[in-house]
Write a structure and sequence with these properties.
single chain, 159 residues, mainly alpha, 62% helix, globular, AhpD-like, Carboxymuconolactone decarboxylase family protein
Length: 159
Amino acid sequence: MNIDIPEGKDPIGYVWGELVPGIGMAAANLSLAVYQHTTLGLREFEAARLRIAQINGCMFCLDWRTERDGVKVEDGFVDAVTQWRTTDAFDDRARLAAEYAERYALDHHGLDDEFWSRMTRHYSQVEIVELTMSIGAWLVFGRLNRVFGLDALCVLPKF
């Protein structure tokens, strides 16, 4: 489905800000907070984010690379995310981040004791909650943009 965007309007600003200003602005603030206030390392952050982008099929999210202090993940990182089970490009934390993102999006009822045992060996409770909130934000906002056809038009502000 495509949303009718009035001539001359920024599609993201219109849908997120004008159509539903009370919800849209709160959603935008959550989306920005995920990037501005994260304590997660860049590789695990991007492993989870890109796995959700792959699942959502959001074109913009697949092309975007988070930058921190001038550093981005290496070329080919997205391919490693696709192969998170077998790649040698990931440490345990990045691999678990990609796995968690996938399972959260596709089989959250299947998050069993064995998974949580592995997760808590590598992540603190604070990090798990932060990663969960981030995954949830990427899942909903990337999917919203994809479903409405905004992912081809999306431009995020630099921060």
